[in-house]
Amino acid sequence: MNQEKVGKFIQELRKEKNMTQQDLADALEITDKAVSKWENGRCLPDVYFLQKLSDLFNVTEKEILNGERAFKKKEIDDNHHEKILEVKNVSKSFGKRKVLDDINLDIYEGDIVGLIGPNGAGKTTLIKAILSLYKIDSGSISICGYDITKELEKSLSKVGCIVETPTMYENLTGRMNLKITEILSTDDTKEYTEEIIKLVKLEDRIDDKVKKYSLGMKQRLGLANALIKKPKLVILDEPTNGLDPLGIKELRDILKKISIEQHIGVLLSSHILAEVENVCDRVAIIKEGKIINNFGIEEVKYKNITLEEEYLKETVGDNNGNI
């Protein structure tokens, strides 16, 4: 049993609760020196205080003595889930400024991954690199096994995207906008187009001109347009900008539905952390061009904290996790 590891775990649990050593000592009715001894690995809590700590921090006594939670990251079975996106050791600079620094990111079918980070962290640059709008300096990006630098047309044929507000022909109907994409698609998508119209709940307004649509309707039409060519990967950059709560919920429900029923992988970049927490399976935090953490939403919930708290700890906290 590693006393130092146990001590660090107790310290981590205390900080997750925003407690000082004195706060913990008061809760346990002991001196702060006793808490300090535990956290410095000088001694272990006895059975009585193990039970108290277990109740206070909602962990088991065994987890405390092991110095870590028993929770394991959700593993993806490679035999049953196709890897849709693989970003491997990708770097990109503009002049002397390195915007992406050795980025690694995988997305599997049915996987909804949130990409979050401060302004200027590299989110949009990464998305544009995946879409081959920016040429990367090093590393590789593949979509459904197709390297974007060697098989660009094949790789991008597997992608649908919305970058902020989708651009549509305002004087055409929603149906005609989809028809244009349908014509350009190599697959027979006519029946599928009708399914998509129902999926995004536009069947009653699809024959109206787009200029009469609300912002939420335009976003849903944009998503329908992205889905017409039956992509395996959907990329959304700030898709909920300007949407009201109902519009956000509708978009969330659609994303969950397509990920499950159509086995589509989704990369979602957003500043609305509560929405990322509600819709995503995993989250990658990017800061100063580097992925500093990549974890399952279940892990955050297991800690009894919000994604916002985890994000702030990762991006603006000091080395001890204090904000």
Describe the structure.
- It is a single chain.
- This protein is an alpha/beta fold and 323 residues long.
- It has a domain at 3-70: lambda repressor-like DNA-binding domains (434 Repressor (Amino-terminal Domain), Orthogonal Bundle), CATH 1.10.260.40.
- Helix content is 41%, strand content 20%.
- It has 14 helices and 10 strands.
- Strands 6-7-8-3-9-10 form a 6-stranded mixed beta sheet, sandwiched between helices. It has a 4-stranded antiparallel beta sheet with strand order 2-1-4-5.
- The chain is elongated and about 75 Å long.
Sheet with most strands: strand arrangement: 6-7-8-3-9-10
Let me know the CATH homologous superfamily of one domain. lambda repressor-like DNA-binding domains
Instruction: Based on the coordinates given, report the CATH architecture of one domain.
Output: Orthogonal Bundle
On the 0 to 100 scale, the average pLDDT is 87
Distance between the termini: 31 Å
| CATH hierarchy, class of one domain | Mainly Alpha
Q: Supply the helix-strand structural class.
A: alpha/beta
CATH topology assignment of one domain: 434 Repressor (Amino-terminal Domain)
State the share of residues found in helices, binned by percent.
Answer: 40-55%
Low-confidence stretches: 72-80, 318-323
Percent of sequence in beta strands: 15-25%
Silhouette? elongated
Instruction: Give Rg in angstroms.
Output: 24 Å
Given the structure, what is the number of helices? 14
**How many DSSP E strands?**
10
**Main sheet attributes: strand count, strand direction, barrel closure:** 6 strands, mixed
| Strand/helix succession | HHHHHEEEHEEHEHHHEHEHEEHH
